[in-house]
Description:
binds nicotinamide-adenine-dinucleotide; binds prephenic acid; alpha/beta; Rossmann fold
Amino acid sequence: MSQDDTPTPPLTAADAAASLRGRAVLIVGCRGRMGAMLCRRGTAAGLDMRGVDVPLTDAVLAPACRDAALVLLCVPAAVFAEVAATVCAHLPDTAILADITSVKVRPLQQMEAVWPGPVVGTHPLFGPATPDGDGLPVTVTPGRTAREQDTALVEAFFRALGCSTFRATADEHDRAMARVQNMNFITNLAYFALLAGQEDLLPYITPSFRRRLHAAEKMLTEDGTMFTGLFEANPYSHEAVRQYRKMLNVAAAGDIELLCRRAQWWWKK
Ligand SMILES: NC(=O)c1ccc[n+]([C@@H]2O[C@H](COP(=O)([O-])OP(=O)(O)OC[C@H]3O[C@@H](n4cnc5c(N)ncnc54)[C@H](O)[C@@H]3O)[C@@H](O)[C@H]2O)c1
Ligand SMILES: O=C(O)C(=O)C[C@]1(C(=O)O)C=C[C@@H](O)C=C1
């Protein structure tokens, strides 16, 4: 179910890049992991990329924003509202304000509160270290003020980079990410927090345990602060935890067969 059933425009990456010719794209947070990756991929696709990062002074923003057609905020959720307000003060009326935050409900509201022009949310569903490749998915969540051509231009940006796009409402996105991203994080976190410090376990470590430990390492070490922020910023995180607790209650009651049958859904042919 999506807000708008319009499918991804049937543009090749080259057509998409051509449709952006003469339109500058400004990345705010261009020295960050995602911002730098988007600048690099945009430049490689032949787009007119600009970048700004802290400190966002008037002297930095005024020339960078002057002819921007699309502005992508690539900064953490914690500073998002403040950065959006600062940047908007310099944008031309026609600019499309967009973001790549991993949650969508709050950032869309925050952008719409400070920008009367078109607003479009996006979430690249991949990280900065994902090998370049075609078809990496991006969710696009059009704001209230976005016209079809505004949303299409944002989609063209990602398609020019070789990504695929699909549309959803911000609410649909956050409900999905609470389950895919935040529950993945919280269940790893709870499990390894529970077992931490239990030295008596070390002689018993098995290959399957080691596989899970390895799979959780980046998320809980390098990316721990980001995932904590995403958990806190998603309005549906707590509901997702309550759903998970229900599954643990089924296990505690001993109905493991029921859980096994349900879980097989992921691997059925
Ligand atoms: N890292 C990922 O895997 C990933 C994937 C998809 C989306 N995202 C989203 O992308 C956004 C950025 O994530 P990241 O991993 O690139 O973060 P990052 O910390 O690597 O980069 C953030 C950038 O924002 C800049 N910044 C910080 N405070 C600022 C401020 N007050 N004013 C202006 N700039 C400021 C920093 O200087 C930095 O360059 C987040 O909203 C995140 O949810 C991240
Ligand atoms: O590439 C990674 O290691 C990531 O963690 C990327 C990842 C994720 O897989 O959850 C992290 C945050 C983004 O919102 C989207 C993707």
